[in-house]
Amino acid sequence: RPDDADVYVAAAEGAIYTYTMGTEGWVKRSEGYKSDVWSSVTYETTEGGATVDILILSNAKDGMIAVYGSDLRVEKKALTIGDAYAEVKFATLGRHAERIWGTGAEGYPDSIFYSRPYDPFNWTNVAETPELGGGVINQPTWDGDKFIALEPFGGYLLAVKEQTIFEIRGTDPSSFTITEAYGTDGPVEERSICTDRTSMLYLSQNGIGLYDGNTLRLLSRDALYETMRMRMEGMDSAARACVCNHIYYLAMCIKESESDVLSENNTVLEYDTERGTFMVRKGMRVKDFFSVGGTVYFTQSRLRCCATATRRAAAIWARRWNVCGKRHGSIWARPI
Question: Degrees (nearest 5) of the Cα angle 136, 149, 234?
Answer without folding.
Answer: 135
